Amino acid sequence: MRELVLHSSEAQAEALSDALLEAGVLSVSVEDADRDTDAEQPLFGEPGTEPSVQAWERNRVVALLPDGADPAQIIEGVGAQLGADYAAVLAEWSLRDVPDADWVRLTQQQFGPIHIAERIWIVPSWHRDDPGVPGLGRLEDAAGDIHIELDPGLAFGTGSHPTTHLCLAWLEAHLAPGATVLDYGCGSGILAIAARKLGAGRTWAVDIDEQAVIATRDNARVNNVELLAMLPDELEEGTSDVVVANILSNPLKVLAPMLCGRVAPGGSLVLSGVLARQAEEVCAVYAQWLPMSVWRERDGWVCLHGRRA
Q1: Is 233 labelled as part of a ligand binding site?
Q2: How does the average pLDDT of the chain come out, rounded?
Q3: Is 209 annotated as a binding residue?
Q4: Domains of the chain and CATH, by start
Q5: Known binder of ligand: residue 185?
Q6: Which reaction does it catalyse (predicted)?
């Protein structure tokens, strides 16, 4: 396969990308043309929001070509869409070969076993026989290690994000045997599955995304745990001993009355997906129902905890 490479300004990058896709390329990526130099520019966006800057001052626009595609025809098609303003950009282009590779294996190499807190291991299926993971492959582990088999997929939650670490660490440290658990915004189901493996009783996993609910059910089956995965309108009335929600701060603020109302007397509410600088604001929103405080911080993210009287 081959890639078509062009260069553009910040103002041109988005329209150029769209025109290339319209002309028939398979995919387009936009890179900082000054990457790995002193002029490299970092771009940051708030989680869950669109960044205010969509590209760099100088961009390398890379389009993956279908086999047999004529790059000159692609350029001609893009020029017909964009007009004379892009003539200079389209006048200078180059091709580069994409080396053959085992993309599945390369992707898998990015995801190895993840050790969380003292006892929890998140293990992709291609590492299920990994001798480096203590107790893996044994039904009973003398050290009490908990193994969760989980592959990266459509639903959020592979165990690598700091907020997932924080919630899992809280569950390991504080979840009482037999406690009922509600995982709201379950994503892949990793928190609900961990809760069951740590000894929780009846456990609900809820998400607004149907694909997440399907992924949670599949992951629960792989891990031989029983839980109730569903969409929000399927959740029955009632409370749980532990309610955990690892989503972003704005949805957490909107959901505050509902989540607090789901906590049983004496039960715990555990929240993450909150940046350290957002913690005070989120706690203030919850204060009218449940006093919350920072339980732990990791890499700029926090886990908030509150207990119902």
Answers
A1: no
A2: 89
A3: no
A4: 2-97 (3.30.70), 153-308 (3.40.50.150)
A5: yes
A6: L-lysyl-[protein] + 3 S-adenosyl-L-methionine = N(6),N(6),N(6)-trimethyl-L-lysyl-[protein] + 3 S-adenosyl-L-homocysteine + 3 H(+)
